[in-house]
Amino acid sequence: MSKNSSWRRAVIGVAGAALLTLPLAACGEKEDSAPPAGSPSAAASAAADPALAGRVPDAVKSDGVLKVGTDSTYAPAEFLDSDGQTVIGFDVDLFNAVAAKLGLKAQFESAPFDAILPGVDSGKYEVGVSSFTINDERKQSVTMVSYFSAGTQWATKAGNPNKINIDDACGKKIAVQTGTVQFDDITARSKKCTDAGKPAITIDQYQAQSDATAAVVSGKNDAMLADSPVGAYAVKQTNGQLELLGDIYESAPYGYVVKKDQTELAEVLRDAVVAIIDDGSYEASLKKWGVEAGGIDEPAVNP
């Protein structure tokens, strides 16, 4: 992976996000509030670039819209606003700016996380924008364009009453979102437990990250693991009921997803990310959400 970013840090913060005093909402409900009114909008400052717009494949630009599949349960990256319909978040702001550079408008459609890649492959969506970690398995079926960097972090009940050790969670009940790299992570950890003659980890999968978080808050699960900015934001939203556990590990880039054979679209998306980095709208959007530590300066196709 190509990172080389002056913005990367050991911990991805969420200080810029507005917080509620209510517990995390259930799936499909608004989990949190957007940043304060008047915060900079990346899309607003990302003027169309005629050279980039001219490189967009005709079949994509014919209707002036980029159809985007996203799992809108993953604050602060992508989640539903107070109207229960509008998708907001730093992923949304960034991709709106990218689309604007291409002279297009992004049209976000909420979908289960594990349905987005098949939706891109079938042509239902032209792009998948949903905090997809770039890995070799995904690159076998789709083409990906890096635009951000995040790692994995665990969270548990405040005070860690169940004494969760991320290096030895054998016999514990752990929550993850379906189809994520965290599911692969916890599955491998469980196998290490059983190989050593210890109890397996009980892995509960949830379609929505908000439901995984709620399961830990309620005590149904002992802990969860999620992408670092998402986990940190969720902990903030639970009003002190949860705490982060251990350090961030296995940082990797997020990627926009297009069909395997859509290399021209992938390349112009990459160059549009470069353009919003150069004009400052990229950094402004990340700062708006308090996640600038995950910024990169060398987006790439299939890094």
Short description:
This protein has 303 residues and is α/β, with parallel strands linked by helices.
Any overview of this molecule?
This protein is 33% helix and 23% strand. β2 (73-74) and β3 form a beta hairpin. The protein has 2 domains: 42-151 and 252-294, Periplasmic binding protein-like II (D-Maltodextrin-Binding Protein, domain 2); 152-250, 3-Layer(aba) Sandwich (D-Maltodextrin-Binding Protein, domain 2), CATH 3.40.190.10. The N and C termini lie close together (5 Å). It is an alpha/beta fold and 303 residues long.
CATH class of the largest domain: Alpha Beta
Distance between the termini: 5 Å
Report strand %: 15-25%
Q: What is the N-to-C succession of helices and strands?
A: HHHEEEEHEHEHEEHEHEHEHH
CA radius of gyration is 19 Å
CATH superfamily of the largest domain: Periplasmic binding protein-like II
Fraction in helix: 25-40%
| CATH topology value of the largest domain | D-Maltodextrin-Binding Protein, domain 2
> What low-confidence regions span 5 or more consecutive residues with pLDDT below 50?
1-34, 36-41
Q: What composes the largest sheet?
A: 5 strands, mixed
Task: Supply the helix-strand structural class.
Answer: alpha/beta
SS elements, strand count: 11
CATH architecture of the largest domain: 3-Layer(aba) Sandwich
Please give the domain count: 2
**On the 0-100 scale, what is the average pLDDT?**
86
Give me the number of helical elements: 11
Spatially, the strands of the biggest sheet line up as 9-8-10-7-11
Shape: elongated
